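User: ok so my PI wants both of these folded by tonight, can you help

Assistant: No problem, let's get them done. Here's the first:
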Amino acid sequence: MNASLNPGQLARTLAVEFAARAYAHDRDASFPFDNFAELQQAGLLALAAPRHLGGQGATLAQLGEVIGAVGYGCPATALVLVMQYIQHRSMGQTSKAGRTWPPHLAERLVRESVSSVSLINALRVEPELGSPARGGLPSTTARWTPDGWRVSGHKLYSTGAPILRWYAVWVRTDEPAPRVGTLRVPAGLPGTRIVETWDHLGLRASGSHDVVFDDVLVDLDNAIDLREPQAWGGVDAGLQADMAVLLGALYTGIARAARDVDTGTPVSATDSGLLKSLLTNHAVQAVEAALSLAGNHGLSRHHPLQRHLRDVLCGRIHTPQDDSARIAAGRQILIS
């Protein structure tokens, strides 16, 4: 791979090969192992990790560019990479309670992803609990013993399960007053099973299978953050921002791939007018959403968002305007 290329260019180059393999992986629901070998060789697996841990410390915008490019070629690969990036970014961020990843754990994971195909994802969703984002305690338990934590439980939608080297498992302790948090569990320990349940409509190659833990022994120092349940209250704004940007980039990549499927069939004036109206209004909504997140600062004359808003509004004025496009479409329906 050309080392002079920036991460976005590297990802776009790789995505050509990913796209060539995507149909077969989707058809067979097979996992795209080769894609991750190429991502690692290109230096893109540790792109999101902080520099002080051995990563590249890419900005969220740079990560979004990479995810969008990979998503253009193989959305399932991009989804697994999103989860890797989110976990790596969290290693350099302090949590709400003032705690963060223990440095020795974070450094080891980053070093591994630089030198080999090493990926991590959070395993949080359960049959009884659903998504923990909606509250409730996990059923997966971590029992303290002098030899280590004994983990038992069942996780759903474990994206990337066939390739993950590490699980960040959301657990509750079996203490009289249980604590809740994350244990870093190496994949493949005795008592761990991957149950191949993923047979989905979309993202079929993402390997989002179930993972079951049956009294799995985990080193005591692999506890990342265990707290009283009430200490986890509220939304983690940093995590939400990462998820919004990276998942948005993934699905935008899919939309670009769909847009670029051109059979050469001429488009009628009516259809092109409706398309212009739809895209223009979506662009306005996207800028308005960004402005609402920025708040009053975004309306300051020195802030670029106010300029972007003024500029994007001009799209509604260019021919054909919304009313003309819709009237033309209505007439065509009435006379057809």
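One down. Here's the second:
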Amino acid sequence: MKKRFLALMLVCGMTFGLAGCGGAEQESTSKDEKAETAEDAAEGETGKPEQSVVKWNYGTSGNVLVTIANEKGYFEDEGISIEPVEANANADAMTLLATGKVDVVSNAGTSNPLAQIASGVDISVFGGHMIEGCMPVIALPDTQWNGIESFLGEKVAVNPSYFAFTGAVAELDGVDDPMTAVSWEVYSDYNDALAAVVRGDVKYALMGTGQNLSVQEMQDNGEIKIVSYQSEIMENYSCCRMVAQTNWINENPNTVKAVIRALLRAQSYYEANKEEAVGLHAAAIDATEEYVGAYMLDDEHYFVSVDPLKNGVIRAWGILDSTGFLDENAANNNIEDHINTALYEEALKEAEELYGEEAPEFYENMKAFFEENDK
């Protein structure tokens, strides 16, 4: 079930305020009553959060769902607030998590958390951020592209820890070892990888989400072309998972569910108001709307979801293990023990009961997506 299905929401659920002072007063009263109901529920049947402040690392690129939940008061409705904790890189974020200096990490990809789990760090996936991150594959303008098979025998600026590519190569006929079937060139910076394409040092290169604007401009100038996207190589590849220490999740179930409920409301709002979301998020990360819109408004390749994506994480674990990116201790870990879908399922049900009237189709779609991707 693709994101196009998720986007079909709020058409019937939208309500329009009545004209005049009477209509405005009625709308204001309705909002106040709804906030009171959410607050009562957060402290009642759904359980009061064990922790009122959640320390969160969401990287320099931010998390649009966190941005919306903050701006619209969804976290406040749930009785929690977010304390941002900065890190210089994904590895640093994982260190902060492992040492308990941060409660939640949402922007460190999927490979990084899985590598931590494989090495014996007891963390778990309990939700998601980006499922697809709008990451383009580029080449020189005259380069032919015939799908992932075009990688065979070529130098490509793609870190093979990006399991969508190694996994896809492994499935090609005649490929015994995806690690040797392609010359995987690793660059520490996407701009260096782009320069390698321009110089002809590599034939293809993967770009990050944040490179979309510059890549699109270079394509318009005829310097390069976008031949594909990571999401076209592997659909729903699990870009960034939301992770925390397993003990923290188990000791703070109401807090976890409060986070998920707030983010579900944010996702619902995001899907129905993407233009506004671009502006909100651009302000949150101190970027231009043009920069953020270059990836966020690409409905074909950018997909955010709170869903844990259990099946996608298990798939990623298998590919990373078979290609040698996981610690040898991985064999002693059952990855399913580090994916908590129970709290998400409970929170989804609670969110629908509390906020379902805001976007009934959205919650139906989220339940269907969960059944397909987490069961």
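The first strand starts at residue 53 and ends at 57. The domain at 3-131+239-374 is CATH 3.40.190.10 (D-Maltodextrin-Binding Protein; domain 2). Good luck tonight!
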